[in-house]
Structure formats: C-alpha cells, structure tokens
Amino acid sequence: MGKVLIAYNNDSETVLHDFFESCADEAKQICADNGINYSSVCPPDLNEQSVVGVMPDHHLCFIAAHGDVDGIYNEDAKAVVSIRTTNYNFKDKGLYSVACRCAQNLHPHLKALGLRFFVGYNDTFNIRGEHEPFINSAMAGLKSLLSGDNVDIAKEKMLTAYDEQIVALDATDPMAAIELVHNREALIFEGDNNLT
Hints:
Blueprint lengths: L3 E5 L8 H17 L4 E4 L6 H4 L8 E5 L2 E2 L2 E3 L5 E4 L11 E5 L7 H7 L4 E5 L10 H15 L4 H22 L1 H13 E5 L5
Parallel strand pairs: 1-2, 1-3, 3-7, 7-8
Antiparallel strand pairs: 4-5, 5-6, 8-9
Helix pairs in contact: 1-4, 4-5, 5-6
C-alpha cells in the first residue's frame, strides 16, 4: 500500500467533531502499526485542494466528516469531494469514508472516473451513546485493508465487526444496537475483490 491521506473534520463547532477525530486517530494508528506512510489534513485546511488536489501522491483517501448524497463537506459546509469537484485524481485510487449518504451519488460518480474501491454509506451514519462500538465497526474494514487483506476479506471482517458490536451493545444499550444495525445495512463496500 502506498501513502494514505487521512482527512477529517475536528472543528470544535462541528457536531460529532470528536467522533471524526477519533476515527482519524484510529486510521493513523492503523497506518503506523502497518508501516504505511500517511499525511493528514483537518480544519482550517480541509478543502478540495488539500484532498482531491493531493491524491496523485496517495493511493487511498480516508475521510471522516459530514456528507450527503452528493459529497463530503468541511466545517464551512463547502465540498471537500463531491460530484461537483474535479475528481480525476481518484482514478486507480480508493476512498474509505465515514460520512452520511455519500454512497448514493458520489460513489457512482467516482467509480465512473476509475475509482478502484469505495467504502461509505448510502443512508445516514447514526451514532448513539458511547462512540467506541461505532468507531470499531466503521474502522474494521480499513484495519483489514491496511494489514494486507484483499477487498473481499476486508468487507467480511468489517461485517463481522459490526455483528460483534451489535451483539455486545444489544445487552447494554439496545437502542444503540439498533443504530449500529442501521449503519451496517447502509454500508457500501465495493471494489475489485482481489485488490489489496
């Protein structure tokens, strides 16, 4: 695996900024554990140029921020990557996102431009209660991919992580377990199954 770009919205005025930052911290730790070089970007520098613009130097973009059906946005609600940004730099790259709804229109848009694999959600990404089960589930696929697993195995490991967290939460916080089930059902994890 080449260099990874870790982009996240940790602006203190942003709802769930602490969750996004925790996901990014986990991504950094996964890279460190696997000897993978990474660079990171966050507010006030989270923008199209600092993400899409630097993708020629990276093989994978991990991003944790708010999204909608058309894209993923920064603390000022400006597009970081969307169907309206210039996305040719994503050809032969991967995008792993923790963002609401971006799998609806952004995923097919990037796929048409040659994106190799995509992880994201086609509905809201819900969080309730303790963040850890949601972080563990959302980051399991990245952990698997960056440890050398192919896309197919990484997807299976991520679904298994969701299932394990759902069972654990069901005993302590059933409403949070329901939100995690929703996230699992909204997950889109697609790419060449043999890609590592």
